[in-house]
Write a structure and sequence with these properties.
Layout (H helix, E strand, L loop, with lengths): L1 H5 L1 H9 L9 E2 L1 H22 L4 H6 L4 H17 L3 E12 L2 E12 L5 E6 L8 H6 L1 H12 L15 E6 L7 E5 L2 H22 L30 E2 L27
Parallel strand pairs: 1-7, 4-5
Antiparallel strand pairs: 2-3, 3-4, 5-6
Helix pairs in contact: 3-5, 7-8
């Protein structure tokens, strides 16, 4: 959905046609790959911690200074969360307008005050401002799917939307937490917003019209289809403080028959 809202044509190429176009996403490519690997490795380490692997053993497996720094910032916070009933690397799904919506959650916990905390770890070197984060699809899609599929995780009465909190956690930031509360009004607004987006996608797929290119050329700078669309011949430069989502989920494939089969 983020692809579609930023550039419908990119969404079509990547998610419908599953096109492969061998353009470098950013310059320098080695640094881009390093940041992607760093994000992937950090998420694996955080999951290892929450499934009960000894932190000392985890730390001994780290041989990369940047990852070691992330781990040292992460561990005290993770230890404060470890005793809650929680799930990590959990995939949930729900349906809307005849389509399946899927989300992968880094961490979900049931807190003593009967609230539910969704945390997404972010390893990018720059924390975006709150309005930027608020506008991202993930910020409203994750609480929506969690609310709709709640009883696939917890054997409890369905919560009220205000009991759900989404938190981004940026270990590289001096203020790592950014929390977004939820509400009944917000849930209904998001449902309408998601429905409208799905309807726009369906409308384009069912028509003879092509998916339009974005009007914001800035989105093309880090798109591997930019040369195919004749928007740019070379990759954008990845600044050291770039606001870039480093976890690579491009090769993640969801087996929808297995999602929600959870052991309590």
């Amino acid at each position: 959905m983020q692809d579609f809202l930023e550039c419908p044509r990119r969404f079509e190429l990547r998610n419908i046609q599953e096109a492969s176009w061998p353009a470098v996403l950013s310059e320098p490519p080695t640094r881009f790959e390093e940041l992607t690997e760093l994000g992937d490795r950090f998420h694996k380490l955080s999951n290892q911690f929450f499934i009960g692997i000894d932190p000392t053993s985890i730390e001994s497996s780290i041989h990369q200074p940047e990852l070691e720094d992330l781990w040292k910032r992460f561990l005290p916070y993770a230890e404060s969360l470890a005793d809650y009933k929680h799930f990590t690397e959990q995939i949930l799904r729900t349906t809307l307008n005849g389509h399946i919506l899927v989300a992968k959650y880094d961490y979900v916990a049931y807190l003593p005050d009967d609230s539910f905390l969704i945390i997404d770890w972010k390893t990018s070197t720059k924390k975006p401002d709150r309005p930027t984060l608020a506008a991202r699809v993930q910020t409203y899609l994750y609480p929506f799917i969690f609310y709709e599929s709640f009883q696939d995780l917890f054997e409890k009465p369905h919560p009220n939307p205000p009991q759900i909190l989404l938190q981004y956690w940026y270990p590289n930031s001096t203020e790592p937490e950014e929390i977004f509360p939820y509400s009944e009004e917000r849930h209904q607004t998001i449902k309408e917003q998601l429905s409208n987006t799905i309807s726009r996608i369906d409308g384009l797929r069912n028509s003879d019209n092509s998916f339009p290119l974005t009007e914001d050329i800035n989105y093309c700078r880090f798109c591997n289809f930019r040369s195919l669309c004749e928007r740019a011949a070379s990759a954008g430069t990845l600044a050291l403080d770039a606001d870039y989502e480093n976890e690579d989920l491009s090769n993640t494939h969801f087996d929808l028959d297995l999602i929600n089969e959870i052991e309590f």
